[in-house]
Amino acid sequence: MKATVTDRVLAAVNLAGAFLVTWAVWYVFLHPNGVMKLYTPMYGFSLVVVLTTVVVAMASFGEGWPRLEGFASRPVRGVARSAIAVVLALLVVHGFFWSFLGRYGVTYFSPRAIVAAGGVGAEFFNARENASTAIVYLSAAFLWIGMVLTIGFGTWPWSASTPGVRAFSRLTLAGLLAVVAYAILFHPHVTQLFYPAQIMAGVPPWWEGIARTGSAYFNLGWVMAAVAVLVVTDVLWGGWPWRLLGTEGGWLRGAFAFAGSLALGALLFVALERGMTAFWGEAFQGGQYTDAPSFRHLHVAEIASFLVLAAFAVDTYFPGGVGFVPRLLRTAIAGVATAALYVFYYSAAANRMLGKVQGVAQPEDTPLVWSLLFLTVVLVQRDFFARWPMAERRVE
Predict the structure, then answer these.
(1) Nearest partner of 335 among 317, 302, 318, 311, judged by Cα
(2) What is the predicted pLDDT for the residue at 394?
(3) What is the 8-class DSSP label of residue 237?
(4) DSSP 356
(5) What value does the mean pLDDT of the chain take?
(6) Could you give the C-alpha distances from 259 to 140, 229, 263, 265, 266, in angstroms and in order?
(7) For the CA atoms of the chain, what is the radius of gyration?
(8) What pLDDT does residue 396 have?
(9) Angle between the N-to-C axes of helices 367-379 and 5-29, in degrees from 0 to 180, rounded to the nearest 10
(10) pLDDT below 70 — which residues of the chain?
(11) Where does 91-162 have alpha helices with state H?
(12) Domain ranges, residue 221
């Protein structure tokens, strides 16, 4: 059914409401002059990215778990599922990583375990930043793998199983494959954060010759670009072009989505980096701020997160038709919205609202935190509240 003017106005009001909710949550928990001041920045980053991961896992990877449709109204279900997501996120960070994995397995996942181990830099603030960096990387790997499994492979190979079995199987496999991806793409960087470098626990960053930096921001950049490709093709294009090899998933479509998203993500990565080169000049080893290769790689991830946020916002608040032209138009709108988000984040208004330091390449600032928080609020309204108070719409 075609949207009316009233529907569009209500959608715009809801989007503005999501923005205000994001700002309120930011002020209470992350703002440097707010209440809790958790943006240090990596500790706040880890809390936000884990919360985003939990929300996506519940709504998408876990096929809507827990299903409460028959028990209460949309707002009550939304509040209940949001509370579950927050509790799970805290349990993942402070329970699984800090108290279990970091204590009994890999030291650097727990700031307390790092401090207890001693050595140079083993004080709590620095230890918490290092542990949070590892948590952010592993969460990014999990999001990427989970999206490939859900968007590409669909219900394969568990098509005949119940939704609960499929959800558990997908989450388990995503966790296993994410550990492998993390070990190769991010772990070598984390082992270099300590002095002396933990050379027996991880190889030196193998990508240094390619990326001109040992920072895993290089891998985070192209992983986030691949995630952006998967999101755009899924929510704005209804699964195209992956649908060419099946509409319900399958191993062939999954392989196509995996390889295709990597290829298109690499193209997006290169295009954004060349754009930065045209604007700021060539990056070089030892460069500071915008001249640093590590900043350029991280900035790709940040711009990709703006694109992911814009795509979900367009699909949630301004759904359109399923033909080629409507999808192309919505993609163009998402592109304009991405640029608008970028301009806003680096504006004087954002400096005041978020407590940011002026400038693009501040070492203690990353738009990923704010954009992922905003994205989480949008996803909560979309999936947990079923778009309430707007009209309910089935999310395809």
Answers:
(1) 311
(2) 52
(3) T
(4) P
(5) 93
(6) 18, 11, 6, 10, 11
(7) 21
(8) 43
(9) 130
(10) 1-3, 121, 393-396
(11) 102-104, 111-117, 124-147
(12) 5-384
- What lies within 8 Å, CB to CB, of 396 at 6+ separation is 238
Contact 309, 375 (CB under 8 A): yes
Quote the strand ranges of the chain, DSSP E: none
Amino acid identity for residue 107 in this structure: T
The total number of structural domains that make up the chain:
1
**Closest among 219, 240, 218 to 229, alpha carbons compared:** 240
Q: For residue 134, which of 174, 88, 93, 175 has the smallest C-alpha distance?
A: 93
Residue 389 forms part of a structural domain: no
Q: What is the pLDDT of residues 242-272, one digit of tens each?
A: 999 988 889 999 999 999 999 999 999 999 9
- 271-316, pLDDT tens digit by residue? 999 999 999 999 999 899 999 999 999 999 999 999 999 999 999 9
Q: Which residues contact 316 (CB under 8 A, 6 or more apart)?
A: 378, 381, 382, 387
For residue 28 the two structure tokens come to 């209470």
Q: Report residue 99 as tokens.
A: 């108290």
Q: C-alpha angle 286/291/295, rounded to 5°?
A: 90
The position carrying tokens 């009001």 is: 13
Q: Which pair of tokens denotes residue 140?
A: 């990014």
pLDDT at 1: 54
Question: What is the widest separation between alpha-carbon atoms in the chain?
Answer: 64
88 domain-assigned: yes
Where on the phi/psi map is residue 238: left (φ > 0), alpha (ψ -120 to 50), or beta? Answer: left
Burial 44-82 (b: 16+ CB within 10 A, else e): bbbbbbbbbbbbbbbbbbbbbbeebeeeeebeebbeebb
Could you give the CA distance from residue 115 to residue 197 in angstroms, rounded to a whole number?
16
Report field, pTM of the whole predicted structure over 0.85: yes
3-class secondary structure, 120: strand
Token code pair at residue 284: 């070089």
Mapped onto helix, strand or coil, the DSSP state of residue 195 is strand
pLDDT score of 73: 87
- C-alpha distance from residue 196 to each of 117, 159, 191, 200, 232 (Å): 13, 49, 9, 11, 42
Amino acid (1-letter code) at residue 363: P
Tokens of 254: 């999954």
394 domain-assigned = no
In a domain, 390, yes or no: no
Cis amide bond preceding 188, omega within 30? no
